[in-house]
What does this fold into?
Amino acid sequence: MSPRTYVPAGFLVFLLVLPHLLPNPFYVHIAVMMAVFAVLGGTWNIIGGYGGQLSLGHAAFFGTGAYVSTLLVNAYGISPWITLWLGGLAALLLSVPVGIICFRLQGPYFAIASIGLAEALRLLVLHFRDITNGAQGLTVPFKGNAPWLLQFDSKFPYYYLALVMAVGVVLIVRRMERSRLGHYLVAIGQNQDAAEALGINSSRAKAKALALSAFLTGVAGVFYAQYTYVIHPDSVFGLGLSIQIALVAIVGGVGTVLGPVLGAVIMEFFIQFTQIAFAGQYPGLELMVYGGLLVAVILWRPRGVIPWFARLYEGLVARLPAARGAQA
Amino acid sequence: MKKGHRVHSEQFRDPVSRRDFLKGAAALGVGAGLTGLPLRGVHAAAAKEVNIGVLYPTSGSQARFGQMCVNAIKLAVDDINNAGGIKALGDAKINAIYADIQSDPGVTRNQAERLMATGNLAAGTGCYVSTYTLVATEVAERYKIPFVTGSVADKITDRGFKFTFQVSPKASHFGEMQMEFAAKVAGPGKRAAVVYEDTDYGTATSKGVIEGAKKYGFEVVMNEPYTAKFTDATPLVNKIKATKPDLMFPVSYITDALLIIRTMKQLNVNASVFGGGAGYIIPDFYKDMGKDGEYIYSAASWNYDINCGEVPKIAEAYEKRYGEFLMEHAGEAYVMIWVIADAVERAASTDPVKVRDAMAKTNLTKGPGSVMPGCHVEFDDKGWNKHVHPVMLQWQKGQLRTVFPESDSRVKPVWPVPDWGKRG
Amino acid sequence: MDLTTILQGLLTGILMAGIYALVAIGLTLIFGVVRIVNFAQGEFVMIGMYATFWLWKAWGIDPYLSLLITMPLLFCFGVLVQRFLFRPILHAPDLAQIFMTVGISVVLMNAALFFFTADFRSVKTAYAEWALRLGGVTVSVTRLFAFLGALLLAGLLTVFLTKTDVGKALRAVAQDREVCMLLGINPERMYLLAVGLGAALAGAAGSLIVPFFYVFPTVGVVFVLVAFVVVILGTLGSIEGALLAALIVGVAESLGILFAGADLGLVVVFAILVATLILRPSGLMGQA
It folds into this structure.
């Protein structure tokens, strides 16, 4: 067995037992957040990285999933296991008009449009307070330990759920990358006019990519609502979140399968580091350092960290022996 | 012009040298080691220390309020420790562990998780904004750590959580009190304009205001939320002016409170103002408004001159240390630390579950832990301080004075309110 | 709703448009020449505001006079930003550029918080309360000055761009940098100039705003979103477009607050953005 097989396999096993190795629930919480952002970054990557459409409004899909699910759970008592898919569906439906409006735009226009749309949605959610409870936010009914309602006292089930989602997204992105859609997207990203000249329907490809991305982002939103229990327009529809999502993919490496995963780990690590090292002592210092790190990453590795990591991995794999037995 | 689009195959090109590999591994090792850093801030419950988690926003949009609360808490901790600490635990000292929740629910969740999982807390307190408090109390409920708050949303205690305790009035009570007072001084049948900032606090209290208005026979001529981030209050005040109100009930943050009042003067809108707390009752308000801030009313959940025991002494000590008066939520934060200390004292333990049980039996009528309006802190079975009620304040001669209910006030309200230009 | 109220709304919108225009022009200038969308433009304004405040606090300098200091100050700042932060990423992907400016924005906002605290500062001047009353309508003098100041600066900039050699070179680089190099124009220097000017305009906006508004670390966010809409509506890179668009957006926001709801002003602005993108994405001045 070649190291190329057993190293990833070993890593997966490690991920499976990880929660049991961590000293307390706070670390499991960190792991959950890393997984959530790996999901978000990975799905953003579908349209943002491969599709080359820099969306800074993905929080719109996230928030839609979170709100639709929580409203249904509160109003009709539907199990979140079901509203998980309904939330994703709602986000997918939202992506259709968004795509129609935005896909004719290039580069920064698309980014600004996405910001505007997400912000408008946030303000509207705030405005229609009779439906959404406006600025007071929504809470998921607290039921203690209720697995059939996607609510657990222990963090472990959340972790495994998030892990399944993260692995799922990685596999989906890998599949998509090798599929026709993936190739179309890359072609469109390189040169949209040339791609269309070759017969590729760029609108349809981008719409499909956005729909997929929106759906998965919405599902992540539902998970988040169930995990954090309180959702608020400013946090789940916020510009800050949209930026973080894109950031994960960028720091890791856009247009790559594992980039966002790496980006999520790094970003969450930095968030934790700055919150812990400077917690509460000097207002503004944390985010100042965080912003500085962002600038440093852009200056030093504008194409993401994954190439460097990939070389490291290659080096490791080259040094490891093949396991006896089955051939690679 | 399409720039640098990553193609997958490009990445895995160069073989890595031994040196590079070692460098990389070292970097990873350092990184992993740094994650050990979270252990900093973990305090083992030393025999001589009682850990209290303090979760307030000291950066971000709510920073001003959060910082004042943290200041008050520091004062309380010092006061308790200087008086001998927790006697039942051998003069154990209170050790407050502060975490900045950055005016963000996600950060609140994170910091709450961190403190409650690693901080060895006997209790926690925070978070100023009700949304953040909802987040933190849910975490506290799962970790079984008692959490005391001064936030006001009804939902906080409506949930019937076992580990949540609220010393402050409920949001729905503010409006009722405001209207009761307004009806008393202004008489019935007046025209009332209600505007509120489109935030948690604004939305929560405005409902009570509208209901109160109807109950006390006011004609509600305007009921509208607004975005606090406006750069010009003129459109809003313009709209208010068009409704010709006698009384105005705004719920505002800091800059919008100032801009609204200034613009009211500029556009000559002479309605009497009954603010909804927050921006209307902080030092910044009068410092900026000067004479034009005179006679403006505001609802509040606490004030530094309420008629309870040693409140004046506490207020004086705070002002001496920090150079500005002790404002509403900061005063409550001070009280809450004493409430926690009292519970720990009676529990004679730092075990959070035991502290919780003791806290549920809190019944303070004396001492710094009792000085909420009503002068009596006792929690009902849902964790709410059943004796507390909101108070009405008024700026008089540059000082913020409690004027209603009579039981809590040391001075009388000034009515009618003179027109702009005739104040001060 | 009576006529006076509507007129007041109209007037307020027009006055506000001046400030939006100033911020937008700086944005559009930087994008036109350097092709970078500067998400930190709001923070440049914030720096200008703090500079104005501290000049007043320490030496009693009137905000309008401090324009003479804040503009050169922000110019130098812009030059430094271009030289050290923008230059390395001039040819990086759009993503990297946007995130660079986002990072700068976060750093600046929080540096202000760290060094100056979250307290709201304001400048007290003798003329702060002055207002002109025309019929039933009130016009705040400080806002009027801001509007006039913005117009003046926009006018000066236009003169600079059309009548001076340097200005024309700047416009040339915006159109086609390869050709400019053939013509002997040094694009590097033009970039420095463009970002410097863009920052200077933001600083000017800051000084003009301080007399009627408050200074705090996140004040830039308030202006920058609207400025983006203005820039797109007015066509990225066009100064006249930015002026016209600012007028439209300012009035629309003000009337939106009046008619739609006091919390929907920004929604109206974003609706304009969406409408522009659907109907005429290249903006008012662009090719349809």
Notes: Chain B touches chain A through 66 residues (CB under 8 Å). Residues 1-29, 31-45 of chain B have pLDDT under 50 and may be disordered. The radius of gyration of chain B is 25 Å.
